[in-house]
## 1
Amino acid sequence: MEFLANIINGMSLGSVYAIIALGYTMVYGIAKMLNFAHGDVIMVGAYICFCSMTYLGLPVIAGVVLSIIGCTVLGIVMERLAYKPLRNAPSLNVLITAIGVSYFLQNAALILMGSDPKSFSSIISLPALRLFDGALTISATAVITILVCVVIMVALTLFTTKTKMGKAMRACSEDRDAAQLMGINVNGTISMVFAIGSGLAAIAGVLMCSAYPTLMPTTGSMPGIKAFTAAVLGGIGSIPGAALGGILLGVIEILARAYISTQLADAVVFAVLIVMLLIRPAGLLGKPVNEKV
Amino acid sequence: MGIKTLKPQTRSTIITYAIVIAAFLVVTVLDGLGLISNSLSGQLVPICAYVSLAVSLNLVVGVSGELSLGHAGFMSVGAFTGVVVAGCLARMGIDNELMLFAGSAVVGAIVAGIIGFLVGIPVMRLRGDYLAIVTLAFGEIIKNLLNNFYIGVDDAGLHFSMTDSSSLGMTQGTILINGPKGAVGIDKISTFALGILLVLITVAVVLNLMHSRDGRAIMAVRDNRIAAESVGINTTKYRLMAFTVASALAGAAGVLYAMNYSTITPSQFDFNQSILILVYVVLGGMGNIWGSIVSAAFLTVLPEVLRPINQYRMLLYAIVLILVMVVPHLKIYQRAAEALRRRFGRGEADDATESVATEGGEADA
């Protein structure tokens, strides 16, 4: 029973990773860059929700909507100011810029909100689920997190396959120049991907802080890196891959924490990344890319 | 023969050594006159450590062209190895501080070099963003493992455990590394002179490597991997060489850093520490060794001088990091640079041959 509870908790954590990983995987697919600052967008989203609920006294729904809007705008601004001028620059420069943006967000939050951890009150106030005469208790947050993740995955899959914008997105990630020749607005599409990814990051931030209620300026960085690991595990650029990788990684982390060592759980997660990259660099669901000279 | 007639490479080498030695002389004289404040003299050894770290990271980022985000990990390997070695040597009755320091620095560098080599074997199979993220992962793994290391020494020899300090099974003797609490009671044997010596050694190793046949091969791999491969350069070997040498040098710098404090903890050597070193390298100019020295020294002293704005320091670093990367790619900048170049003839500095300047010359930054 304890094992089952761990699996469900792992899936809940994994769902958060999966939602964050979507942002990484879509941006990587289309802009071919690792948006290092994506993890910190989660933190910004959680802070916006926290502030609007605690200081402004707004209802939960308003807080969540505000944080999604805030992060979407942040994503677009970030892309315009920092990444757009570097569209054709070497990847080293882009990555260093992304690290700079990540550092900027963390330190701006540190100055604005202070370094003391804020305790985030869960946005979900439903009672926990009790199964098998109370032998298995599942928190409502875990159930809702998993449900939200499923809804987002389905919606995003429909978006990319059925709508015109989704098709433009796929075309850009396939071949940017050819897409441009076909009359697709590449810059607009990239901005849209950043907007969607950042909006999702806001949702992930709120859900994550509902389950793990300490909110600090550095809250986003570790989950961000792990979500990137999840995206690589599932195959970067693939939306179902992000979901699979995220949930797998969440389960691995919780199991490692429960049965190996709390201290070494992070090391286990990163070891998974390294092994994966060495055995199958394209990820579980990714397609291998041959190098062209 | 004036300095203008020398080859740019030789001139840059002379400037590099001259900066270090001049800095040493100036600081020693000022210290003798009692003009250096307490807070600044406490920073002298960390400055040397950061300068060595920046120069060694420059070998990976600037010369080899790979972004490593785990440099602090190798620094911590060196630091903790150095503490253990110093503890053992002291137990064996050696109390000459110079011997203690030399022993720890050499062993620390060797162990960090071996770890760097082992980490480098899988890492060098990757490229670009993947490589960066895996070095980050290794840095975190090293930190996590060190958080679980318990090492003590008594008359029977070294004791090692990964559970807690009581399972070391020691009744007497000293605990050298105590898990998350880190190393406590370190002999503070680092001095400014030793620091400068380490900086000089680091600079000499890196510059000699850069100007050797191997160094040119490393730069060829950076500039065009496929072309380098097609003329028979073993790309993995040379990238691994740069990575291993840089790790060993970071290990030695870690020893210097550790021996300046009575306590160090594994969590000090986290991702932020790696980023800080990267900031020094990027601001000094990637591939430019004396740039790294100046920026590391300057940026370590700066917060001491500018205490009032200290809380904005990291924010400022972040903004500068972004600007240094983005500005050369802005159309306005490119046009201005072009206009300047036309007016003054050749605007590009000779040093640009050494840096990974794209267009516009990052060496200026």
Note: The domain at 3-277 of chain B is CATH 1.10.3470 (ABC transporter involved in vitamin B12 uptake, BtuC).
## 2
Amino acid sequence: MDTIWFILVAFMLTVYVLLDGFDLGAGAIHPFIAKDDRERRIVLRAIGPVWDGNEVWIIAAAGTLFFAFPVLYATSFSGFYLPLIIVLWLLIIRGLSIELRQHIDNPLWATFWDATFFIGSSLLAVLYGVALGNVVRGVPLDADGNFFQALWTNFSPTNPNPGILDWYTILTGLLALSVLVGHGASFIAVKTENELNARARRTTRLAWFATILLTVPTTVATFYLRPEMLSSFSQRPWGIILPALALGGLASMGYFSLRGWDKATFLSSGAYILGMMASTIFAIYPNVLPAVDPANSLTIYDAATSRYGQTVGLVWWIIGMALAITYFVLVYRLFRGKVNLEDEGY
Amino acid sequence: MDEAAILASRWQFAFTIVYHYLFPQLTMGLALLLVILKTLYLRKGDEIYNKAARFWGKIFAITFIMGVVTGIPMEFQFGTNWSAFSEFAGGIIAQTIAMEGAFAFFLESAFLGIFLFGERRFGQRVHWFSSLMIFLGTWASAYFILTANAWMQNPVGYETLPDGNLGIDNYWAVLLNPWVFIQFMHTQGGAVVTGAFVMAGLGAYYLLARQHQSYGRLFVRLGLIVAVIASLWQLFVSGDQEGRQVTDKQPVKLAAMEGLFKTESGAGIVILGQPNVEEQTLDNQIVVPGVLSFLTYQSWSAEVQGLDAFPREDWPDNIPLVYYSYHIMVGLGTIFVAITVIATFLLWRRKLFESRWMLWILMLAMPFPFIANTGGWLTAELGRQPWLVYGLFRTHEGASPLVSSGNVLFTLIGFAGMYLIMGLLYFVLMVREVAHGPEAEDEQQEMPQGQGQTT
């Protein structure tokens, strides 16, 4: 049951990255691919009806994490105090940027919110990568199971008291940025036509190339810093399909992108993200929060709530997720197709 | 644990939650009014209802997004600032917090997208249906989060696990906590009061300014009818029930609310007075004898326990603030009843739209429901102190052990600065929407595409 909840929380976080990932990516590229106000409004309209719903996944995932693994929630959120509050500020700025830009028709107003949308989106993409990097590298948990990380110490991941930022987590942050840029660009390509579409495709290819360049050193560094992650794959060899999915996604993303098949490119990018997230989660299991000193690592068994709580949770979770997925299918179907600015909205 | 860090975390939570709740109380009230407007449009077919719904839909959307972005920090702060509490009680309160995400937020976000972007594409029935779903979503969200709060006020359905933390023992007891029914009635009533007063107040402004007068009359009429029902509901049904519940389950909170330091038979109700905790008296008091005993125990001479009946360490740690918050809420609630009853009488006599003095009052009343709702929540939460979970877990045990006061002050100042700017932006946008008025949408739609069209 602990394992089931571990998988369900991981599933929700992965869905969050897949969905909010493309609107974060869209934010990170929109100053570069959208050249005038009309094109910027098209980019915003492409994510307009869905970004808020995408973001609900992080709220729902955090809530689920909170009840299924209260100890993990408490430990990680307080330990990552500063970066998490910064994430909150960025989420606030970014949400306001998307919604408020359209309310005043003034070029300075629009430029201001374009800038905050860009900054918020790209920093969030980097920070999510940094966060995942921190979990993989391990955090300085003490014997009581608490930690508090400064934003940086000496930028070395082998420091017994590492900061949020070190060369390894910066690397994972940059990888996340390039992955989400590719994800967002391929989504914008699906939703647009003409020059905007062409520029989005070009950006997708650039991001694809950068992702390859960054995936290699990140993977090497991961197994260098955390050799025990390799043993997860040797103990449970079937897990190898997960990195294979990531590689396959990356390869087909390049192929479809050269062919100009936008939807297939977007889906391949999603497959890469899914593969990478699942591989990471698979490799750290049964830890949920590895510690610098492995003896202090938090496992799913230490962190979970009561069996009864998990069982009743499972019942409503299945109903709730079935409903949520129904809404998502409905909304994405209703708003399928290229963006048309003539449609109303306010 | 570091006292300064606990205090900073309390300030941060209090500040961010008070600020956050300014927005949902308006959206929950407006959600109901939007459903009414869309229903009127479908039944009567008069375009004015639909334009009014679109206008309030815009106000709703801006307010909603403010509520969303200020709401995310609330969930995260349980973990960031109150990790000891989260470990202790997460297995219970997070059940309903997670359910809020699964059942309410997904629903709201999906149908808000359809409501805002899909009226022309999907037609009026879908548009009406999406307004109904938004209403259900916002109110369901309130129910789930109130269940978490209700459990902290009145813990039920829990067991102590081997590691000393609590686990859920009876799901339905937590979800159907008797505390939550009354709390839900009173909180939602308060939200409707806010939404209805804002609608009526804005209508009064349009009438006074002689702009958009047909809309002004509609807003005043609809807002007022809803406001009078909601204001009475707050006093006679839900408020009264809320008072009895507190008397029954949290008598020390009641004593602090009333500024009753000494146990009394035939206790009076305080109209005015300042609690003096040092001397344990009420300065400059105006008291109507016997009324408190009657309201709480339905007997003019019943004994009401004062603060002296409880050990000092169980007293709320800020008695004056509990007392003032409560009295401001009740005082304003009484004034709302008076205003709306008189205005409704004028409306019935067909004199309201000519009675400019009453329109002035309705317009100026707009901010006060926000203050009353805030006062109510301060009463509930400060009155729960010194407990985080009533009777089980004290506030000073709950903070994150390794987060320093300096770090919390840094983020508190950051939130304060950011929220100040957001408040200004919100105000500017509201003033603009009000100045554009309900007809603005059409003017823009008739303009050729690309010429100043806001989308």
Note: Residues 442-455 of chain B have pLDDT under 50 and may be disordered.
